[in-house]
Write a structure and sequence with these properties.
single chain; mainly alpha; about 120 residues; three-stranded antiparallel β-sheet; 3 strands
């Protein structure tokens, strides 16, 4: 069996990224589907707007401290550590989607961002 070349591996990676998005529920998929032919400034704007729209999909419930918490609508995960079932809404979820403030970034959001960024206009 011959070794796959780099272009084959890149194609497989791109197809896997597209599959991640395709497997999302329809409402989430419509929000994060990559946009094509954007400038880098438009990609940044797309990302910010997409994060806010994903936060709107969250279904928060109060925890024992009466803080609204929800799992990520994209990856369905909550914080890596702790006893909570989800991220605080909206700020904890925003940090997860952006990967800011030492939060583990949502892998699904990272895939959507990469697909959009890779298709940008120069």
């Amino acid at each position: 069996m011959s070794k796959p070349d780099i272009s084959d591996l890149q194609l497989q990676l791109e197809q896997t990224r597209e599959l991640v998005i395709a497997l999302l529920p329809e409402q989430a998929r419509r929000i994060v589907e990559p946009r094509f032919a954007l400038t880098i400034d438009e990609v940044i704007t797309w990302h910010s707007h997409t994060v806010e729209r994903v936060i709107e999909l969250a279904e928060p419930k109060p925890d024992f401290n009466q803080q609204d918490r929800a799992p990520c609508p994209l990856c369905r995960r909550g914080p890596e550590q702790g006893v909570h079932d989800g991220f605080t809404v909206p700020e904890g979820l925003r940090r997860h989607l952006e990967g800011s403030h030492n939060f583990h970034r949502c892998e699904v959001m990272a895939v959507a961002y990469t697909l959009t960024k890779n298709q940008r206009r120069q």
